[in-house]
Amino acid sequence: MSAITRDEVAHLARLSRLALADEELDHFAAQLDQIVGAVARVAEVASADIPPSSHALPLTNVFRPDEVRPSLTPQQALSGAPAVQDDRFRVPRILGEEA
Amino acid sequence: MSLIHKTAAELGRLIATGETSSVEVAQAHLDRIAAVEPKVHAFLHVDPDGVLAQARAVDERLAAGERLGPLAGVPIAHKDVFTTADMPTTAGSKILEGWRPPYDATVTQRLRAAGLVILGKTNLDEFAMGSSTENSAYGPTRNPWDLTRIPGGSSGGASASVAAYEAPLSTGTDTGGSIRQPAAVTGIVGMKPTYGGSSRYGLIAFASSLDTPGPFARNVLDAALLHEAFSGHDPMDSTSIDAPVPPVVEAARQASVDGLRIGVVKEFGGDGYQPGVLARFQEAVDLLESLGAKVVEVSCPSFTYALPAYYLIAPSECSSNLARFDAMRYGLRVGDDGTRSAEEVMALTRAAGFGPEVKRRIMLGTYALSSGYYDAYYGSAQKVRTLIARDFEAAFHQVDVLISPTTPTTAFPIGERADDPMAMYLADLCTIPSNLAGNAAISVPCGRADEDGLPVGLQIMAPVLGDDRCYRVGAAVEKAFEDRWGGPLLKEAPAL
Predict the structure, then answer these.
(1) What is the ipTM of this complex?
(2) What is its quaternary makeup (chain B) (predicted)?
(3) Which pTM value belongs to this model?
């Protein structure tokens, strides 16, 4: 039985905002199935009494003083934008036609 | 000896004393780049005029009496995953083609402050995901030892540029082995500092809890000098360690293992390892004993779960980090014809701008983090991470450093593993545990495999903030091997 189906890959692609072609879905489904099958081994040793580590360093709540510091100018921040209007990022519509 | 064959330390000395100039050294390396790049393809961007302008500025600063440190005027190749305000930064991806970042990474700033001259930006697997540079959107880099083979990855342009004498030094980043593996397969030195020892500010993120900038060089002392030049606390990176940089240069000069306890990781060997790699590794073990180290076998049973844990944790973090490539604020935008929604443009852009390995990892990470699977995959991988840290902790109670081969095999042929992700992932089998636990680890040359004559790397792992031990042992091994070989391993490489 496969760990991950073609339909699941199509769902993952949607969640990941990747407009994949049909042949890509087939190709990735086979590969992801193999990879997921291999990495599932971690469950063999992950017993309930072991605390998870999200990070190598025991750092928590690293703060800096709340002071105004120099930052990018609007021109610098917009310098790589695909489209700009009135000193702002111009983006495609974000609401449906009916909204 | 020509300028390109000198060490970084020598070049720094010659420039400081006025025996040569930074401009002269830069020009020699630009000439070499022009001569060998058609074969090697280590660089994505070189601007000769800009390089000479940087070099002239350093010469002027030195002439004005400014004190800049031991690498002032020395050229360096910079991995194209660090932002540079004066050069394009692509991360090896089409989604960032031609992007000019509005700021310099901390590592970039510190290279400039130390007077290093940035020759250009080096090739890499897209977003540093890979072990061969074949995942670069701009074509693979070739191994200077054999142009039909991979130079390792993801920092393959970085390793090849140094091994091909295009630069005496280069920067890299190591998330699962992306410095140590390329160094091993090109016969040079590559160091992954302790996580948090070098700043991630301005490093385009792949897996934030693992990404670590580090140095490449042709010898251990040069690597230590570069390590010292760009490391240390950075308030712009909240995971940066607020502690002094370990005494890495002093340790590289000390070059002694007398009285040290060295552990051989029992789990790294046997099936899947190339016989020539194991033979050279055994020679290194014997050598360390002959130099006065006490060598024992140490078992780290959880290390066999490091690879599967890594291929859950790294893709999970990547799926989140790469969400920023949304076609809105910078980079590529595809399909914005006025009829499509932002979401459709985003999906079309990401499909066009990312290569197959990046797409695989984003989807794998999305899967591992999704509700219903989180505990079994990401949650379990995080527990394995704890077990690996515990194995290291127990091992470092018994020994001062751990050693293993850096990679299970020598450089493989370009194309051999390109569409077989699991085979490709095995290249990082021995390097991944140190990323998961955050400790320091270095790869130094330890000879050539009998089967193919290609370089083999010795990995030396030290505790968190024990980076100096890597350099101390690495330099001792280097000195003893060079006495035996009659010089550095790299002088055995064929002429390009």
Answers:
(1) 0.94
(2) Heterotrimer of A, B and C subunits.
(3) 0.97
